[in-house]
Amino acid sequence: MAYPFADIEKKWQDEWEKRQTFNAENDFTKPKYYVLDMFPYPSGAGLHVGHPEGYTATDIVARYKRMQGYNVLHPMGWDAFGLPAERYAMQTGIHPAITTKKNIDNFRRQLKSLGFSYDWSREINTTDADYYKFTQWIFLKLFNSYYDTKVNKALPIEELQIPQNLNGKEREEFIASHRLAYIASMPVNWCAELGTVLANEEVEEWVGKGYKVERRPMRQWMLRITAYAERLLDDLVHVDWPQSTLELQKNWIGRSTGALVTFAVDTQHAVSLQVFTTRPDTLYGVTFMVLAPEHPLVDIITPESHKKQVAEYREKTALKTDLERQRGVQHPKGAGALPVGEIDVNKKDKSGVMVGAYAIHPLTNEKIPIYIADYVLMGYGTGAIMAVPAHDERDFAFAEAFGIEIKPVVETHGSTGSPTGAPLPRIEDGVAVNSPIIDGLKTQDAKAKMIEYLEKNKIGERRVQYKLRDWLFSRQRYWGEPVPISFTEDGFMVAEEEADLPLVLPESQNLQPSGGHGTSGSAHDTKTLFVPTGTGESPLAHLTNWVNFSKDGKKLSRETNTMPQWAGSSWYYLRFADPHNKERFASKESEAYWLKDGVDLYVGGAEHAVLHLLYARFWHKVLYDLGYVTSIEPFKKLVHQGIILGEDGSKMSKSRGNVINPDMVVAEYGADTFRLYEMFMGPLEQMKPWSSKSIEGIYRFLARIYRLYFNDGKINSKLLEKPKNEKAVLKILNQTIKKVSQDIESLSLNTAISQMMIFVNETYKLESIGKDAAEKFVQLLHPFAPHLSEEIWQALGYSTSIAKSAWPTFDPSLLVEDEFEAVIQINGKIRARQSLKVGISDADFENFARKIDSIQVALERKTIRKVIVVKNKMINFVV
RNA sequence: GCCGAAGUGGUGAAAUGGUAGACACGCCGCACUCAAAAUGCGGUGGGGGCAACCCCAUGUCGGUUCAAGUCCGACCUUCGGUACCA
């Protein structure tokens, strides 16, 4: 008989909702456990099977911890700002708020149908004004703070030391240039069709979908995340995260140590050139200098004779996209572009031109030619390099192409101690040669000595450089948080008063960006509301009544860019601590309680390994510096669930037709089966394919449990009778309690389920296990299959929820066996097995083993050199 | 190229350095049934033997150890990330 999952699940979902079973308590004296899912973007497609994977794992942990007596915070919310809803609005004319609400309702329904024990009273939505009031508040905190490098933390902007001699405008500019939120003209990824700027990491996604993205300098809000580079890197030692994610963050931050070296430039202008190098020990090997084409010094140092070719080269570079630039489409000898996918740094074609000026080598006073080349990026270091072709493959390739001298200054030595004469470029460490100051020193020592020399002679200094760039924080969109800043007519910035927040996103039916400068009604827009103007502003710019206003007799106009989707998700975990607080993002007490040591367990996709997690850590640290949060890191333990593939082993996609819809699975097998199956598929972190056969097996397992406990809809009294073999029951029960508890702690949920299967198989054989064991097993099952376990619990006579019962504990003394199967090995090969009493002495074990016929025979005429006994396990004769 | 993770039956997968393949899917058999489904019970890595048993087997090749899927070295493959970052 099939078990009536549909009735059971509906019944208990209604019950939980009615009783508000899973609301976190406001008792701050209990030990807390905060287990969080990465909240979803509520897309129109609804939940896919990947969502419930992580959500089930956290739900199991949440229910387990509650039963262990923890006050558990397990909330859910919606990351609901974002481009898809806005694009849908542009196509259909339906306001994003309406689409978003509809999608959220659908997501909520789906999540509830899976029986997750969220505290729905704490549900949040990033698009609610009550929520984004505090997103804006945090933005103002960033705007009104600066990073003080002396105390190494953010401080209120009022504490910034401002030079006395600055007048009003200069003073404002000085302050503005120190704020953690600032405006800069940045070359950005501009997509005309979308009418917006994209983050670097978003470019590929949209290019892949057929959109054109170009580089364009535009006025943008930036957040000074680079000020936190060092702490974002160093504090990774405090978190319990997957190794791969730690590495990704480290690489993204990209710390490297080296030196800043100053080269004088040999022109009539008194200018000098600063370069960053990680190899100061190769300073004597410098044979040319390279500036990024955009480097501001180029204008000053280029003599009239070279102006034309420099201008031409700069123009060519500006037209190249980043991708083209990285792939080296041009070659001085006229070779064409390399096909994508065959890029090799060594062979990457190098282009560039001489600027006609020379630098002076700070140690040898030699004249060194200066080039501009697009392989040097303005955005990293100083935008200029000292080129050492003998020991850098890029400089080597450039020198070869341009016929520049190559001067080896590092020698590598083989095991014999003689020079290996390794081919150039020689990247690896070695010993300095042809370098008077440091000759004979190993690379590491040579670097140190050189830096020391540079500092003493004021021609350079030690320097730590990061790859991390500041966070481009503005988007030319409607459906995002308005930036709470206005501008006076003479260009001063005026921040919204905190008391006046939220700055509400105005109603608008006109969502067409004012910036789309491409053709109207492009391939992607079926419904164009008006012809764009091409200014690159957000749709908010059209709402002149909202943009222009007066305050204290001053005419002001609002910022029309909105915040990126990352904004709302960078602090939502804090809001869950106190989601209805109107005065503060969360009360001091609730923050200190729920966020003590951060979120205890955070589960979500590895695709957020860098950006979301880095941005959230950054905001958290700013709030920490300003005294608003008590922990230095937001997420203590992090786990990524693996991707669930389609049945054919490839990624689920509509086009492949291999998408599994959770609603269908729940309808066919029920939520408990769905939950259990997703956990049984394999290790949580691992990528794994869906199998419609295997889910049948899980369904059978639950049906088997149902039949074990129920007989014609009534409790199976035979099961609850006193067992014939009480010892066997206690043993398997205690084993199961131990294994399931340990496995939940380590998130090995697949093996926890295996153990429960073993228990059920055993119980079928035993027929009766007694009421106590029957109850305890259902409790173990509860985090995994909450509906069925509630149903059984009620049938066992309880009127309170099993979720509120106390997690069973095991008695280690009942796990001790009296006998074990002894393994007898000769030279590590198994020759016999025998059942023996636990606790047998090593000597008795050996004597016993020697008497076994096959062993006796095998040991005849052999010298026993050694006998190894592993207590209560095995013996090994070495002959 | 660089960084990271992983390679175990027909399949998903288990294994504190100590009996490789738990648990499940699939398959085979038995019981129930007129029959089937469902259910219950049993078998199932490969090769050999009537049998007790024996040999082989955790990507490849070496090493450490009484003992290696597990530790070390080199290599191969797959997946994820990243890529002119000086």
Describe, in plain words, how this protein is organized in 3D.
This protein is an alpha+beta fold and 879 residues long. Strands 10, 11, 12, 13, 14, 15 and 18 form a 7-stranded mixed sheet that branches. A hairpin with a 4-residue loop joins strand 7 and strand 8. Helix 3 (83-92) crosses helix 4. The protein is globular and about 105 Å long. The model is unreliable at 327-347 and 515-533 (pLDDT under 50). The structure holds one RNA strand of 86 nucleotides.
Oligomer description: single chain
CATH topological fold name of the domain at 255-466: Isoleucyl-tRNA Synthetase, domain 2
The termini sit apart by 60 Å
Rounded Rg: 34 Å
What proportion of the residues form beta strands (DSSP E)? 15-25%
CATH architecture of the domain at 255-466: Alpha-Beta Complex
Global geometry: globular
Tally of separate helices:
29
CATH class of the domain at 255-466 equals Alpha Beta
The major β-sheet equals: 7 strands, mixed
Concise synopsis of the structure shown:
Helices cover 35% and strands 17% of the residues.
Summarize the SSE layout with pairings:
Layout: H1 5-19, E1 32-37, H2 50-67, E2 71-73, E3 77-78, H3 83-92, H4 96-113, E4 124-125, H5 129-143, E5 145-148, E6 153-156, H6 168-176, E7 181-191, E8 196-198, H7 200-208, E9 214-223, H8 229-234, H9 243-253, E10 255-265, E11 272-277, E12 288-291, H10 297-301, H11 304-319, H12 322-327, E13 353-360, E14 367-372, E15 384-387, H13 393-402, E16 410-411, E17 431-432, H14 443-456, E18 460-466, E19 471-472, E20 485-488, E21 493-495, H15 544-547, E22 548-551, E23 554-558, H16 566-569, H17 572-575, H18 588-594, E24 601-603, H19 611-625, E25 638-639, E26 644-645, H20 662-669, H21 671-680, E27 688-689, H22 692-709, E28 710-711, E29 714-715, H23 717-720, H24 726-745, H25 749-766, H26 771-781, H27 786-795, E30 819-826, E31 829-837, H28 842-851, H29 853-859, E32 866-870, E33 874-878
Parallel strand pairs: 1-2, 1-24, 3-4, 12-14, 24-25, 26-27, 30-33
Antiparallel strand pairs: 5-6, 7-8, 7-9, 9-19, 10-11, 10-13, 10-18, 12-15, 13-14, 16-17, 20-21, 20-23, 22-23, 28-29, 30-31, 32-33
The protein binds one RNA strand of 86 nucleotides through helix 9, strand 11, helix 12, strand 15 and helix 13.
